[in-house]
Amino acid sequence: MSDEELVLDIPEIDEQHQTFHEMMSKIGQLVPDMYKPMDDDQVDDVVDALYDLREFALLHFRTEEDYMSEVDYPELEQQKSEHERFLTDLTRMEAELMNGSAIPAIKVYNFLNDWYRDHVRNLDKPFGEFYSKN
Fold first, then answer.
1. Coil, strand, or helix at residue 37?
2. So what's the pLDDT on residue 1?
3. How far is CA 23 from CA 3, 49, 68, in A?
4. Domains of the chain from N-terminus onward
């Protein structure tokens, strides 16, 4: 997927998407071998990064939903549901890591990357098109 496919042409949201992507990518930089279970220090670092990402996601989702409300976007409830599902899954992953589950960093990274690309391509991009017409 090209970067252009991730652009909505709504500057505030596009900037937040870029920040979200950078925060997500940080996970890959924290763990040298993403295919092995993480040691305790790596788990702590990844959990901290996931916490920061979750906090930013709350702000970002609120921003998106405000833009959607502004133009009476018909798929707003679906977006809210997907945002909530992501936050639930992310919180669950944080808890598993904190409770000692031997989750390789690649699983965390793939979850974040797959969700992000799928969500932007299939839900946010159509909103961007709707927003530009209203």
1. strand
2. 41
3. 16, 7, 24
4. 39-133 (1.20.120.50)
